[in-house]
Amino acid sequence: MLQKRNDLCAAEYPMRDPLSLVPNPRNLYVFFMTRKQKRIAMIGLVGTVLVATSALILSAVEESLVFFVTPAELQASTIAPDQRLRIGGLVAEGSVKQLGGEKVQFVITDTSQNVTTQFAGILPDLFREGQGVVVEGYLANGILTADEVLAKHDENYMPKEVADALKDTGQWKGQNQ
User: Most buried one in 36, 53, 139, 153, CB count within 10 A?
Assistant: First the structure.
């Protein structure tokens, strides 16, 4: 009698094969695509990946851009407070002051405009008044807070942008005047 009852239950509620719950890959849409459709889908996928990669690279490059300006160009333009700058010119005579510890304040000039600069760190050995210098940092309240100071390394070297700015003002004392 018990056997008969189990047979009735089995007829009313048939047991499903546990593997039938797993989707059959043949039922997925991608397997019904033609070769042309698969090729177009692959090109679209690769294109999307390339666009996303390019966007990430461009945003990284944009964050690391540093614009070179002279003190005169800096005074004539408006700079965002978070904009990183590279300013070049000459260290003004009598402007280097020790502020305590390794903190130094000096003035960069292009003979027409001046920019007060503060730097906390060790200055290059060739840094001195009257020499060419390129400084990188951020401008806040009219004072450039520098995190890198580059001094010219020999008698003939001058960064191209600084040399061009000095030639424009008539202060260039290098070769090929």
Answer: 139
Task: Look up the CATH architecture of domain 67-169.
Answer: Beta Barrel (2.40)
Secondary structure tally for the chain: helices H, strands E: 4, 7
The whole-model pTM stands at 0.56
Alpha helices in the chain (DSSP H): 2-12, 35-64, 71-76, 160-169
Contacting residues for 84 by C-beta, under 8 A, at least 6 apart: 65, 66, 67, 136, 137, 138
- pLDDT tens digit string along 51-95? 999 999 988 887 777 777 888 888 887 777 777 888 888 888 888
Q: Which residues contact 82 (CB under 8 A, 6 or more apart)?
A: 138
Please compute, for residue 142, the number of CA atoms within 13 A of its CA located in the half-sphere on the CB side.
Answer: 2
Nearest-angstrom CA–CA distance, 138 and 145: 5
CB 127 within 8 Å of CB 133: yes
Specify the residue for token string 């009735």.
Answer: 8
Pairing of strands 103-109, 97-100: antiparallel
Scan for tokens 């408006």, then name that residue. 78
Rounded Cα distance, 23 and 170, in Å: 80
